[in-house]
Amino acid sequence: MIIFQSFFNVEGQFSLENYKEFFTSQNLTYLKMSFNSVLYAGIVTLVTLLISYPTAYFLTLLKHRQLWLMLIVLPTWVNLLLKAYAFIGIFGQNGSINSFLSFLGVAPQQILFTDFSFIFVASYIELPFMILPLYTQLVKLDNRLLEAASDLGAGPIKSFFTITLPLSKTGIIAGSMLVFVPAVGEFVIPELVGGSENLMIGKVLWQ
After folding, report:
1. What whole-number distance in Å separates Cα of residue 199 and Cα of residue 34?
2. SS3 for 10?
């Protein structure tokens, strides 16, 4: 329906003006912001994957998994704005980190409104949505396959790349989609904690 509407102007007449504006806007603004959105969303997805995979695997080894899963899901109950404002208090010029650095005799650092602050906050917020799909796949992994691989002479690293990783591919794809798609259109986090340089298409459209 959105694709269909994109071929009509505000008067409801068939037109290609929307696409013309997108591809020929001043300084190619929309194209650049779209590229930025895909780039930053890809980085956030990669960061969450690198953190979530060992976390999810570790969860499968624990006895009281339900308790730990609840603790991972719990932050999703908190409003996105509240979490973003909490990080403003942590990363700000007079925030927790800079206060600690001042205590150590180190000059305050510009942490807020940087690429780092955006990637950190976005990754933190999206983390549960990567961990849960990975966990559901890894918890079903048959340990007898790993034992058989070990008996046949495969080391831990080879067993991981030939058995564990391929069998968890579905979880990786699902988690990546759950993180990447919202991150591409994100506008709240770039507005509150991101820098002017990491403008994303969602923020541009909102403005």
Report:
1. 9
2. coil
- CA max distance for the chain: 71
Q: Distances in Å between the alpha carbon of 122 and those of 56, 71, 77, 182?
A: 19, 19, 16, 10
User: Which neighbouring-strand residues pair with 8?
Assistant: 14
- Which residue, 198, 174, 201, 170, is CA-closest to 185? 201
Mean pLDDT, residues 35-45 taken together: 94
**pTM greater than 0.85 (yes/no):** yes
12 phi, psi to nearest 5 deg: 85, 15
What Rg do the C-alpha atoms of the chain give, in angstroms?
22
pLDDT above 80 for 126: yes
Q: What is the 3-state secondary structure (H, E, C) of 112-175?
A: CCCHHHHHHHHHHHHHHHHHHHHHHHHCCCCHHHHHHHHHCCCCHHHHHHHHHHHHCHHHHHHH
Rounded Cα distance between 141 and 52, Å, is 17
Per-residue model confidence as pLDDT tens digits over 75-98: 999 998 999 999 999 999 888 999
The amino acid present at 204, given as its one-letter code, is V
